Amino acid sequence: MKRFLLSGLVLCLFAAAGIYFFNQYWIHRFDALIARQAGVYRLDPGLVWSIIYEETYFRPWMIGDDQEIGLMQVTPTVGREWAAETGMSEFAREMARDPASVLRDPERNIQVGCWYLEKIAKDYRGLPGAEARVVAAYNAGPSRAVGWNRTDLDQSPFTAEQFIARIDIPSTRAYVSNILARYRQLKATESGEGRGEK
Q1: Does residue 4 surpass a pLDDT of 90?
Q2: pLDDT, tens only, 30-79
Q3: Which carries the bigger pLDDT value, residue 152 or residue 120?
Q4: CB contact at 8 A, 183 and 46
């Protein structure tokens, strides 16, 4: 009986270790792509990673309720805008013909998603808690984020917490809070590793 229990315990430990290591592979298999595209668009790769984690948990085949496609849940409209603004006529033709085939590709999806994030981020550079505004705009649209960010002329810019409290769409408020919590946790882990801590 003891041998049976010990064998069962060992088997459970191996299964738990297998699940852990598979999960680590799963959530980090696009890290190089994320780092490359985030670097091109002057974004923190940790923020991009946190958005992908929330959007699709790294499943490139995902299609959203509003036809958002791929890892970063990019809409065909944003994909067409990217292709037109970057002057890539071949991609513009592909986006017009079959946006899903372009946006299902992980590298292209991350590229377009990062391009869109940078476009949003330009409006918030230098503000305290800019990430909250960028993530809210990515989820609910830039015009809504502008409204939530609006202050009186003599008023200081909102902190991230004050901005989040102004978001009147509960799903967007939860989305922003989840991403920022994960992003902060990731940054804390990275800074601990940078000092040799675990």
Answers
A1: no
A2: 999 999 999 999 999 999 999 999 999 999 999 999 999 999 999 999 99
A3: 120
A4: yes
- Span 78-101, pLDDT tens digits: 999 999 998 878 888 888 899 899
Q: Tell the residue number behind the tokens 């049976």, with chain if given.
A: 4
| Measured distance CA(153)–CA(75) in Å, rounded | 35
The domains found in the chain, sorted by start residue, are 29-122 (1.10.530.10), 123-190 (no CATH)
What SS3 state is found at 125?
coil
What pTM was computed for the model?
0.89
67: left (phi over 0), alpha (psi -120 to 50) or beta: left
- At residue 1, does pLDDT exceed 70? no
Spatial CB neighbours of 103, under 8 Å, sequence gap ≥ 6: 69, 70, 74, 76, 79, 109, 112
Question: H/E element holding 139?
Answer: helix 130-140
Rg (C-alpha) for the chain, rounded Å, is 20
Beta strand ranges found along 37-101 (DSSP E):
none
Helix 130-140, helix 142-149: angle, nearest 10: 140
